[in-house]
Design a protein that fits this description.
single chain, 5 helices, 175 residues, mainly alpha, flat
Amino acid sequence: MVALLTAAVGAISLLVRWFTGSLEMERSARRRRREQAQLERDRQDDVAPSDQLPPGAVPQPRPARPPGRRRPAAHHPAGRRAPGAQAPLPVRPRRPLQLVAADLRRLTTELSMVPGGMPMARRRGLLAAFDDVLIEAAELLEVPHQLPAAPAATRELERMRLLAALEAAGLVVTD
């Protein structure tokens, strides 16, 4: 009976740790410690032998690294590339102009009928999606725009200017 109770408490504590994410954090901490130890070993391997030789002795060439041990890639600890490393730009397939125009009309309608009690996060999400579709339409029709670089205070004016420029280019924005 005691063993069964102990096993149940152990299973419950394991489930709680799994749900709270502490198991994953412990695993990533162990991985970081292991990688840090590997870096320390690599640094010790890279110490110049002339520092350890008596004066007048000739340093011998260092043996080649075993093929299984490689230096870590130049990545940021959070998974991003290190500064100076050039990453290839992602190539996004272009959607047809008809789909972009339909999304633009749909988002215009949604934004015009935003209820008063709508959460601000949802409104900001709608505006972000609207901005993305506006930029996509502008790139497809080769209309110049400064929407991503516009400060928050003038972004609404830039949206209106870009909508007018897209309509002037022949895109039907409103139904």
